[in-house]
Amino acid sequence: MPDLIDSHASAHKRHWASLAIEHTHIGVMITDARQRIHVINHAFSHITGYSEQDALGKTPRLLASGQHDSAFYAALWHRLNAEGHWQGEVCNRRKNGDLWPCWLTVSAVRDNNGKCSHFVALLADISSLKHAHARLDHQAHHDPLTGLPNRLLFETRLHKALQHSQETGSLGAVLFLDLDRFKHINDSLGHATGDLLLKAIAQRLKDHLRDIDTVARLGGDEFVILLPGLAHPSDAHSIARKLLGSFNTPLQAGEHRLIVHTSIGSCLFPEDGLDAATLIKHADAAMYRSKAKGRNRIEAYTCDLGTRLGERLTLERELRHALERNQLSLHYQPVFSLPEQRLVGAEALLRWHHPRLGEVPPEHFIALAEESGSLLAIGDWVLENACRQLQQWRQHAPAFGPLSINVTGAQLRQPQWVERMQQRLADYQLTPGSLQLEITEHCIMGQTEHTLNVLNALRQLGIQLAIDSFGTGYSSLGYLKRLPLHALKIDRAFTRGLPDAAHETAIVHAIIALGRSLQLTVVAKGVETLEQQHWLQAAGCQHLQGHLLSPALPAKEFEEKYLRTRLSDFSDSTAGQPPL
What we know:
The protein is an alpha/beta fold. Helix content is 46%, strand content 24%. It is built from 23 helices and 22 strands.
């Protein structure tokens, strides 16, 4: 009788195993020890195009694409024999000849004597993920408005041009272009017309450059151009003069035909600099001299060009004293949940009010603080004050949180940084989940295994982690899976184009899908219109922040507006704001 029961149980298990194999969307292939295919499921046939009649009795070489060398397969079999399993990405070929990316998992099945009797392979078609990553990769290296290379791609190409210049002795140049009085066009005709004008200018510049040249948009109305392989130093001025002349022809921006002028600064390499940052800085300084001399002209960098650099040094010096003079403050921008219809946290944002310079925009001093080495001290100040403020708020609003604080790679690399964060949590009696640290995608992708250990240690302390400005860098899916993340924050550059810009909508859809697949909260930043909010809600984005609901507010104003009401009541906590 026991044997009969065991027999029925085994048959029952085989039945359910067969059902599971046949109904999964992942391809399943089972071979014997000699790699002869014995079993495939419906998903395998759907993905590869091979039926049972095609595949049974054959070997997995049926799928070989010719894209992998013998060393690849040797490493695969070495790992499989040593550890009993292997997984990774391979390129396979369908029956119709098309190549497709596959996430392959292979396991060896051993009998009671420890001898391999079968191999079980799971094949997942990751084409859609690869396409999404390709779109994200393109966006990481290109300006979303004009489609031109961005600063990251420009600096990469400039670095390669500098290497080639050193190896061959060739000349090159960097041009820095800033449109004259572009703000007046934006203010008078609107940002939509301004954006159309920037697109037209981008095309105009490309039309007047060589194939080997690179024109990039740094942001706003600033463009930078790489001119490699020049025969003579005067060639840079000749090309710049041709570009300047091209602006005499009107540009079409919607219903408007506009003539726009530009100021151009130029510098040569290797004469005026041997690294990307120096060359861009020198071309920028030359451009400002062009504006000072009347605009719509070209100026070349010279060693005595110090005015622009002097202003920078002044700002740097004032920034060093900003902390001790109590000129820095934190403002707080609320984050709202679309599904829950309530306030679910805030982001702490740094502000600098200078008695003479007035409100200095963060984009003017954050990068300067990092380059000058003062960012670590400022970062510590931000963390200390944000934690203190969070403690005060949670005394009468225990449900509030998390509070998000931006940190940099340099901060994460500081000795004993995890221990110091642990001490802050204890000093301010902050509970797990009440604090979230935001790291930009560019920063996190450039870090080491040590940084990954730091992030895991922070996670163990109960600190949430988010990738800020997601989509502006290039993150591999494999690397993202290793990170102990809670959230992805969509950069405002993508949100701005919603819901009409096809490229931006595709990117945001991909980010939301990626967040779901990794079980992460997705936060859209820079939401400014109801149309953007409604589109994001329909697309499945969970959280949003932006001027539509509230700008960043001083601590007292934030508290009065959001924390002296019942946080669970969305209508109270967003009184006076557009409804979700």
